[in-house]
Amino acid sequence: MSFTIKPIAYVKNSRQEIEDDQWGSIVSEIELVEEVSELSFSGITDFSHLEIIFYFDKVSDDKIQYNARHPRNNPSYPKVGIFSQRGKNRPNKLGLTSVELLSHS
Question: 99: which residues sit within 8 A by CB, 6+ positions away?
Answer without folding.
Answer: 28, 49, 50, 52
